[in-house]
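User: Working on a comparison across species. This one is AB hydrolase-1 domain-containing protein from Lasiosphaeris hirsuta. Can you predict its structure so I can line it up against the others?
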Amino acid sequence: MKNILYFASLGPLALLPIVAGTRTKSPRASLKQCVQLEVPVPVIADNHHYEMPRIDSTIDAVHWTLNTTAWSTPNATERITCTVSVKQTFRIRAQLCIPTKGGPRADILQIATQGRGFDRRYWDVEIRPEEYSYLDAAISQGYSVLTYDRIGTGESELPDAYDIGQIPVQAEILAGLTTLARSGKLVASSQILPATTGIPFPSPFHFQPSKIIHVGHSLGSFVTFFFLSSHGALSDGTLLTGFLLNKQLGTIVVSHFDHEFAAQHDPSRFAAYPSGYIVLTGQSDIQKLFFRKDGFEPALLEYAEKIKQPEAVGEYPSSDSAAFVPASEFKGPVLFMAGEYDYVLCGGDCRGQYLEEASRGLFPASPKVEAYLQPGTGHALTLARNATGGFGVMLGWLGDRGL
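Assistant: Here's the predicted structure for AB hydrolase-1 domain-containing protein from Lasiosphaeris hirsuta:
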């Protein structure tokens, strides 16, 4: 079938609940069993040192934003002063969930990577999870799911924000987690933490998936792509949400949003975050970045503020200077998925902006490279009113492609 931008007509997917406001039920905690892990992930990667102002206060954070986006500032590649060779083991907090009743898809593992501003709770929203938890939606269809906090977020390690917290390291952490999962050694190599949900995990617990699907959102999709470009043979399929190659990509930059130095912004939450970590200032910026008016419930905006996470400034130039190397070893299907009115991706309107040929060129060995716009939705798909409709599209797409 020709690679097309799904929107008004979806063929078989048209039967799925994709209309804004449509909701379907997903499982409760009793239908899944989860284990909390602290995973040591060894990484070898080449980062870069970029010339940029340091951030040790909110005044510095505003200056960094203005300096980075000024027309006269050299681009990220021109600001590289040297290569930073990283050889380090990172402590990664993760959660592995499997369906309690097993099933034909229980040995298909989805590894989900969230974007900027969130930890792994992006995938498992705590407000009405039957409507907003992608993890529960995937479990209800029989999949197993691994979510984790990227370095610099949640309960994972907080590295140097300038030279270590960059895209190459994030991509190699995803590769490390994937390799452990494929080998069946993920749980055995980790520290098992006390908190579990559902039926207690067998001990010792062995889980070795037959297939692995990589799911990303926003920066997490960017990290996922760079993982696929280097380690494509480790993946059987990918859902790149909050990510769309389009004519407006790059027009909305960090200066469109207000950030503060994380430790100064909210010491009760972020005192442990060192120099170079910034965080969105408040709900107005969160709304601008992640939400579409009439497409979200106010309680979800308040929730996003409650769980928001700082960002390492090294992620910005390492994203801007990264070369899009085709994922030539990846042979699985690809779905790009964005909100119809995604501000950060498409300047507020993604309709008619998709670059199909360029997207296909990134995955030359893939049998399917397709794209889909979720109606009436902004950047944060799991927090939108029609989140479950989007989940239905994602999971239905996987099922139709044998995953």
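For your comparison, note: Residues 5-400 form a domain with the Rossmann fold fold (CATH 3.40.50.1820).

User: Helpful, thanks.
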